[in-house]
Predict the structure.
Amino acid sequence: MSTYRLNNLLSPRSVALVGASARPASVGRAVLENIRQAGFKGRFGLVNPRHAEIGGLAAVKSLDRLDFVPELVVVTAPAGEIPGIVDQAGRRGSAGALIVSAGLGQGPGSLQEATSAAARKHGMRLIGPNCLGIMMPGVSLNASFAAHMPGAGNLALISQSGAIAAGMVDWAAQRGVGFSGIVSIGDQIDVDIADLLDHFAMDHKTRAILLYIEAIKDARKFMSAARAAARVKPVVVVKSGRMAQGAKAAATHTGALAGADAVYDAAFRRAGVLRVSDLRELFDCAETLGRVESPTGKRLAILTNGGGIGVLAVDRLVELGGIPATISTDARGKIDAALPPTWSGANPVDIVGDADAARYAAALEELLADRDNDAVLVLNVQTAIASAAEIAKTVTELVAKYREQHRRWAKPVLAAWVGADQHIIQALSSAGVPNYPTEDDAVRGFMHLVRHREVVEELSQVPPAMPDTFVPDARGAREIVTAAIADGRQWLEPVEIKHLLEAYDIAMVPTYAAADVEQAVTYAKDIFAQGGTVVLKIMSRDITHKSDVGGVVLNLTTPEAVRAAATDILARARKLRPEARIGGVIVQAMVVKAKARELILGLADDPTFGTVVVFGRGGTAVEIINDKALALPPLDLQLARDLIDRTRVSRLLKSYRDVPAVKQDAVAMVLVKLAQMAADIPEIREFDINPLLADETGVTAVDARVAVGPPQRKFAGSGPANFAVRAYPSQWERRLELKDDWRIFVRPMRPEDEPTIHEFLRHVTAHDLRLRFFAPMKEFTHEFIARLTQLDYARAMAFIAFDEATGEMVGVVRLHSDSIYETGEYAILLRSDLKGRGLGWALMQLIIDYARSEGLKTISGDVLQENTVMLDMCRQLGFEVRPDPAEPEICDVRLKL
């Protein structure tokens, strides 16, 4: 997540090209010509040891012979020369290099390793190698070998494929779409997707970010950067390899269901990234997001001169989850007065095939004024009666007038002129009206806007609080798992699984492990005595799916039946799987719930994103039914509900006919508990509960499998090393005793703290708020507070303090690390009526301890000169205090750790 020096690379004031070639068909010559033709305004120099002049421009033999220090060095030289070039650039003081050349290899001893080492020595940043280059229209820089230079605009494109980036440029040239920047990242030996997400998220010229991804290297870094970016602007991704499956064969149902692309899908959803399926849809997203803001709702009014195409648009809208807008009584009356009686009278507003520009204008004006819709789609099918170009001209003029009148917010207007000439497309594009070749594309474009608004709302939701009654026995559960690993086992025994589930308050049917037939009969008698029936299952570490060997017998009601069934199960297993280790049989109480739903829940391990939670329809045919959804942990109740809602079986959890609804949140709570278990015990590799029976009384696990092994550290930093999204760091909860026996409870902030924050701010004076935010704060919106409370616990941390006696919030301290995890910026706010009692000092010491534990090197902050109390405390804590040279009223405070 490093934006360090990225601005120097993407908006340089000076550039040197090393490896420019005199050969017309070479990469070096193509990059040279593109830089020249783009009209880069800064200083530009050529470096080539064999040519004194290329294409009419003078060249020097080496970087140290340039009469200026290039901020950016563009390299198209042969691979073997690149480590030396980067080292030379670093010695001269260059900020970074763009390496277009390929062939550096990978691994120890490679040219790539030598290049990275040279860059690190001088603090340089590297883009590439093996990439198309960068195109930054805002600074007239085209350091690429693409065929065209895009115009300036508000879209950023980050692509792992040079060909995709070049294709986007060609498409944009035809559609009049501009870019704030296009970066082809190549092999990502330094600057990666997450770094660029951070950069463009903070770039005020960028309205939306488009991604083409083949694979993600650092999942935790990507998730943190993508989530932060998606909060402030749309992030749209198309990923190749959707049909690729995971490399390893899965031993559990959940492992089989968690295919590689399904995990990527879950990750994008968790990060708030909009996923599209192909380049055409990515183009549509670019067309929409680059021109208009998201609507406040999803009610679409459709204006058309063709009934058929209007109905097709409505069909697609409903299919994608949109709502055909109603026409208000007032708007219908005005349209009736302005149009012939042949118009449809409803949405779609079909104004008939002979509609001219005046008829379009009359209808569109009323739809724009109608509050019963959130956006308008204008469709036109060309006829010999009315000029399509004249209609487009009238529509664009009316839209421009409407936007001028509604500068603060105007509802989106989209268009599709079917079979339109290029000049009509250009006219619509020039007017900033998103336009598409078909009604299907246009509706999809509208729904991309809707989905972005929903994503922002989801990212700022306040999840329900976890029940205080759920306190897992993590220590006892961990002992079960570690004992199995110490015993050299990869799978837990059934009784161990039952105890593991009990430790997390997940009900399971009575389960016993019988070493032989007679012990099975003894256990069965206990179950019969309680009025139950019995199921027997083969117990073997080597037989993954018991039913495959006839290893399950149901509905046993007598000791004799149990004896016969156990004998038969053991004999059949030994015959069909003679190599398998047979430990006996599992004896369970058979749960017969005629109206219960069979579900599957579990944990799977993904090589990129670590632990994944799986939910779906259970039973023996889970892979065939394939009704499942995935999510990245940790989960809260809201995320668990969303996971459930993404399956077809979720509909069966509601009541229907004489079947009562499943107990509210019973299934969701099990998912939350499983996610917590994965955080507490990273030694759990895979976990299968199949089936979990759910009905109006609650849930019961019938069968489960748990694979264990030594924990694998997939991700650096604190928190569960198997989670791509860092979990709530409960280890940082503290109880403090301050002056006058004042007892304080401090814990990391949680999303559900939003109402608490609002109440706390009522007890902070306007003066103290200005000292904290450097400006008068009259109101705090839901969006503002939600952004403060939604922490990823990776780059951002906040500790919230409560008075133990009253339960009221009394203070908060925050730390946000920089993009390279070296410096953290702090902020602190206390209740104004409780200052001077030692709380500020205690919270500052806590955040310093936290920063040290995270490996940060420095804590910094900005403090107003008039905030003398804070400045005095900083000095006492060892901070260096210096006036900010750019803003004299502010002091920069800095503590080296």
Residues 245-250 have pLDDT under 50 and may be disordered. Residues 377 and 414 are 5 Å apart (CA to CA).
